[in-house]
Amino acid sequence: MLRISAALVAALLLALTGSAPAPTAAQERPLVVALGAEPRNLMAMRTVDWTTNVQQMNIYDRLYFWDGMPPRIKPSLAAELPQTPDDLTWIIKLRPGVKFHNGDAFTSEAVKWTIEWLLDPKNESHYRPRFAFVESVETPDPLTVRIRTKEPAPILRYWLVDFTVQNPNYVRQVGNDVAARQPIGAGPYRFVRWDRDERLVLEANPNYWNKPPAIKRVEFRFIPDFSARLASLLAGESDIVKDIPPVAVEQVNRSGRAEVRGVASSRINYLALVNFKPGPLQDRRVRQAMNYAINVDEIVSNLFKGRATRTPGALSSINENVNPNLKPYPYDPERAVQLIKEAGYDPTKLEFTLDSPSGRYPLDKEASEAIAAYLGRIGIRVRVVVNEWGTHLDKIINRRTGEMFYLGWGPALEAQGTIAELFRPERTYSGFGTPNLTLEINKALPIVDAKKRQAAWHRIQVMLYTEAPWVFLWQQHDLYGVNKRVTWHPHPAEKVYLHDATWAKR
Amino acid sequence: MRAGRRLPLNRSGAFGLVLVAVVAGAALLAPLLSPYGPVDSNLVRSLEPPSAEHWMGTDQLGRDMFTRILYGARVSLAIGLITVGVSGAIGLVVGIVAGYLGGITDIVTMRIVDVWLSFPFILLALTVSAILGIGLQNIILTLIITGWVVYARLVRGEVLALKALDYVEAARALGAHENRIIFRHLLPNLWTPIIILSSLQVAQFIVAEAAISFLGFGVQPPMASWGNMLNEGKTYIYNAWWMTTFPGLALVLTALGVNLVGDWLRDTLDPRLKF
Amino acid sequence: MVQFVARRLLEAAVVVLLALTAVFSLQFLAGDPVKLFLPTDTTPKQIEEFRERLGFNDPWLVQYGRFMRGAIRGDFGNSLRQGEPALGLVMQRLPATLSLSAVAMALALGVAIPVGVISAARRNSWFDHAGIGATVLGQAIPGFWLGLMLIYVFAVWLNVLPTGGRGTWAHFILPSITLSAFVAARFARLTRSMMLDVLSQDYIRTARAKGLGPPRVLYKHALKNASLPIVTLLALQLGQLLGGAVITETIFAWPGVGRFLVQALLNRDFPVVLVGVFLTAVVYSGLNLAADMAYAWLNPRIRYQ
User: Fold this and answer.
1) Residues A303, B237: C-beta atoms closer than 8 Å
2) Which residue of B has its CA nearest to A231?
3) Per the CB < 8 Å rule, is C266 touching A198?
4) Of A47, A176, A395, B259, which cross-links A400 as Cys (Cβ 3.0–4.6 Å)?
5) Which residue of B has its CA nearest to C26?
6) pLDDT for residue A22
7) Cβ–Cβ below 8 Å for B43 and A303
8) Is the pLDDT assigned to residue A79 strictly greater than 90?
9) Are strands A351-357 and A404-409 parallel, antiparallel or unpaired?
10) CA distances for A336 relative to A289, A340, C172, angstroms
C-alpha cells in the first residue's frame, strides 16, 4: 500500500509539473505585480474596473494621462493637449509613426472606431454614458480627430485621459470575444499569455513610440487574499503589491527584500451625513458638530501612522480644482455639544447608524469604529454596521444606509466627477443635496472657460464646507510594497505603469 | 442516558471535559475575568505585543485581545449550542416522520436530504450566508439550514432499525397508539446517538462559523468572534503574530475539547456508531 | 446491477435539478448584482437598460424557464463579471482543483494508512499514543488557520517553499498538507479501529498460529478486510476535499474552482455560482454512487436493492 501510494504521488506530480512552464535560467526573471483578481477582460474601453484597467493600460497606452505632482494632463498617444476652437468642437492631434503590436498604423481612424464602438449599445461598454454627448467623430486626416458634441462638454477633457485605443482592423477581423482575450494595442507591452486566475504575461514592445521598456517581461499574478499577497512580497516572489496596511510598513521595510513606497492618492475617504430623511442630520449645525466632535488628526496619526493626508473639504489637495483656502474643522467637542444643543437636540439622546465597508479602503472598518468611539465621547450612540462590499454599495444606491456611511471616492483629479456625482440627490452615489447646491452645480457644469470654471468650483467648495454634508476625512495614501531589485514609483491616480520601471542597480 | 448510570471516565475524555469547562467558564465569567470591554478601543495603544497589562496583546484598534477571546468564547459556544439544538430538533422531527411513516414521505424527504448532502458542507454554508448577508442571526440561520440534514439521516436510520425490533413491532401489533410508540419506544432509544452526534457537530459548527467569518461572510464586526479576529488578524500576521495565534489556539483547543468529549461519549455509550 | 446504476443515476439527476432550482430561487433573496458590475457614474436609466438586456426584469418563472432550457444545453449564461460563458470559466479551473485534491488524497492515504496499521499492530505503544494525539489534533485544527501558519513558517520565515500559486511540485506541498490534514486524521483513526476489529478475529489468529510473519498477516489478511469502510470513506472524503478546496485555494492563490466560487459569491456572480452548484452536485452524486458500488464490489454479501 505504501509503495502504491508513493508511486501514485510520484506519477501525479510528474503529470502536473509537466504541464507547468518551467522558467529557464537564460530567461530574465519577470517583474511580478500581484493583484487581487484577474482582469474582467482585456478589451480597451469596455470595462471600468481598477484591476482590469491597470493591466490594460500597459498593453494599450492611452491618449492622455496624469503625470507629475501635482498631476497635470500630458499627451501620450496624442501629440498635444486637445484644442477647442468653439464650445462644441474638440480637435486631437495624434502622435505620428505609432504602430500597433501587429504592425498596423495607429491613426485617427482607430480613435474614431473606438469612440463609435463604445457608443454602440451592443458592445456593453461602461464608457457609453460618459460619451453620450458626442454628436460625431470626424477624421480630416490620419493624425487629426475632430469630435463634435451636442452640448458644451468641458468634462470631455478628462474623459480623454486614460482613453485606451482599440485596433480597428484586428477587432473587425477576430471579433470582440477574441480581442478581449488576446489584445493587440499600441502600448509599451504586448500580450503573451493569460493563464486564468494565475497570471497575465506581457513582454516589452520593442517598437514602442517612447523608448522601449527597460524591463523585458512582466507578469500580473492573481492572489485573492491580501495576506497571501503580502506573504508573496515578503518572500520575494512578487515585486509590486498595493495597499500595504500602514502598520505593516515597518515590517516590510525591515524584511530586507522589499520596501514601502507611498504616494498621496487622489482618492478621498469621507463619512457621508445623509440628509435625505427627516432627522437631526438635516440640521446644518448638527452636521457641523460631527466635524468638530471627531479628532481626525488623531485617527490619522495613530491608526494610519500618518499615512493619510487630511482634507479640509470635498476635494483632495492634488485635485486640479481644489480650493486651497479651506482650513480643516478643529477638534472641539465642546463646540460640537453646543451646536447640537442650539439645534434643539440633546447629544446623549442621539443615536445614529453608521454603514462601513470592510477592507475596501485602507482601514475603513477601523476608522468607522474609531469615529463611532469619538462620537460616543460626547454621548452620541453610533451603531457601526460593517458590510461586505456588495451589500454596502447596494445600500448606498438604494438609500438604505444609516444616517452615516463611509466611502472612498477616486481617482478624483478634477471637481466635477466628485461634486456633481455626490452632492446632487438624483445621482446614484449621492447622500446629500440641497436645492441651492444643485442649482449652483448645474450652473458650473457647462462652463468651458477654465478660469470661470475654476472660480465656480471654488465657490461651491466653500458652500460645501459650511453645509458640512460629510465629516471631511482624508485623502488616502496608496502604499505599495516594492521589491528592492526594482526601481519604480507609484502614481497618484492609482495607475501601475510599468513602462517607467527599471531593474535597480546593484 | 438514564440518571444514575455511571460513565467510566478515561484520560482523554477527562482532558476534553476540562477543556470544555475552561471555555465555558471563560464565556460565562468574561466580564469578571477582564477589566476591559470587548469593543473598547484605544488607538494610542494599538497592536501592542502581549504584556502584563494586555496578556494577549492588543489589536489594530487597541482592543484587548484576551478580553475579545473571552467574549469570542461566548459567541462560539452560543453559536455551537443554538445551531446544534435547533438543527437537531428539526432533524429529529424530520427523521422520525420519514422513518416512521415510510413510503412516499420517506422517499421525498430523503431526496431532499440528498440534495443537501450533495454539497460540501462549507460550500453550502458559504452560499447561504452570501445570500443572507452577514450578521449573527444570519450565520446561525445558515448553520441551521445546512446542519439539520445530518440529524435527519441519522434519526431516520435509527428509527428504521428500531421499527424492525420485536418489541416495537409487538407494540404496533397490539394496537398501541402511535404517539405512545414514538414517545415510549422510539425517542428514548434515539437520545444516545443524537447526543453523540451533537457533541461532534458542535465542534464542526464552531469551526464552520470561524471559517465563514474568516472569509468575510460571517459575524458582524466589531462583535468578537474568533473567526472575525482571525480575519482581521491575518492582515497583520507579519507584524502582530498574537492576533492570529491566540484566536487560532482558542479555536483549536475548543474543537479539541469538544471532539474528545464526543469521542468519549461515543466510545462509552455506543461504540458501534461510526461518524 | 444495471438496474441499480440506472436508478441511482436517475436519482442523481433529480438531486442536481432540485439543487439548481433551490439556488436559482435563492439568488433573488440576495441584493441586486447588476450595479456591482457597473461603474459608479452609471445613471439609473442605464442600469435599467442593462437589467432589461440581461432579462433580470422578467418574472421569476420566465427567468427560471430560460435558465433551465439553457442549462440542459450546457449554457448557464455569461458570468456577470467577465462576460464570458460561466460554464467555460469554471471548467477551465477544474483541472487545478482535481490535481490538488488528488495529491492531497494521496498524501492523506499515504500517511494515514501506515499510521493506522502500525498503531493497531502496536496497540498502546508510544507510536500508537503519538498517532492518536496527532489525529485528534488534526481533526481539531481548522484548515484555514493551519494554512496561514504554514505560509508564515515555511514560506515567509524559513523561505523554503512558495507562498502560493501553481507552478512546480513545490507549490503542491503546503496546500496539499493543509487540505489533507483533516482527512488524513479521519483515515488514520478509521484504519486503526478497523484493524483492531479485524486483528481480534479468529482467522487472523489462525494465520498467526500457522506461523505467518506479522507484515504478511497485517497487509495481506487484515488490511484487505479492513479496507471496506476505508474505501467508502474515501469516496465521501474526496467530496469533502473539494469543499475544503474552497478555503485552501483562496489562501494559497491556487487557480481552482473553489477559489473562483468564493470570489463569485463575494461578487454575486450568480451564473458562476450556479455552475459551481451544478458541478459539485454532479461530482458528489458520482462519488456517492462510486462509493456504493465499491462497497458492493468489495463485499459480495450486499445485494443491490
Assistant:
1) no
2) B238
3) no
4) A395
5) B131
6) 41
7) yes
8) yes
9) parallel
10) 4, 6, 58
Give CA–CA dist A151/A132, Å, rounded.
Answer: 10
**What gap in Å lies between CA B65 and CA B54, rounded to an integer?**
7
Residue A203's beta-bridge partner residues? A190, A217
Give A447's DSSP letter: -
Rounded Cα distance between A401 and A361, Å, is: 18
**Other residues' Cβ atoms within 10 Å of the Cβ of residue A220:** 25
State the average pLDDT over residues A379-387: 89
CB atoms within 10 A of CB A80: 13
Could C252 and A428 be called an inter-chain contact, meaning their C-beta atoms sit closer than 8 Å? Answer: no
Residue holding cell 441586486?
A: C32
Question: Between vectors from CA A184 to CA A179 and to CA A189, what angle results, nearest 5°?
Answer: 135
Residues A387, A391: Cα–Cα separation, whole Å: 6
Sequence-distant (6+) residues with CB within 8 A of B49 are B57, B240, B242
- DSSP for C233-296? HHHHHHHHHHHHHHHHHHHTT--SHHHHHHHHHHHT-HHHHHHHHHHHHHHHHHHHHHHHHHHH
Find out whether the peptide bond into C300 is cis, omega within 30 degrees of 0: no
Query: Exposed e or buried b for every residue in B214-226, given b needs 16+ CB within 10 A?
Result: bbbbbbbbbbbbb
pLDDT in tens, B19-67: 999 999 999 988 888 888 887 777 778 788 898 888 898 888 788 999 9
| Joined grid coordinates for residue C297 | 464490489
Phi, then psi, of C151 in degrees rounded to 5: -60, -45
H helix and E strand count, chain B: 10, 0
Quick check: C168 and A222 CB within 8 A?
no
Determine the 3-state secondary structure of A347 from DSSP.
helix
- Find the angle CA(A394)-CA(A400)-CA(A401) to the nearest 5 degrees: 90
d(CA B95, CA B109): 9
Euclidean distance between the first and the last CA atom of chain A, given in angstroms as a whole number: 53
* Burial class of residue A491 in the structure, from the number of CB atoms within 10 Å of its CB (0-12 exposed, 13-18 middle, 19+ buried): buried
Which residues share a beta bridge with A271? A406, A471
Q: Which of residues 111-170 of A touch C (CB under 8 A)?
A: 121, 124, 126, 128-130
- Could you report the average pLDDT of every consecutive run of 10 residues in chain C (305 residues)? 80 83 81 76 78 84 91 90 92 92 92 89 88 88 90 90 91 94 87 81 70 66 70 73 85 92 87 89 80 69 47
Range of weakest confidence among A129-138, B214-223, C218-227: C218-227
> Is C144 in the B-facing interface, judged by CB distances under 8 Å?
yes
Which of A43, A225, A355, A392 would best serve as a mutation to test chain C binding (most C beta carbons within 10 A)?
Answer: A225
Nearest to A370 among B43, B134, B237 (CB): B43
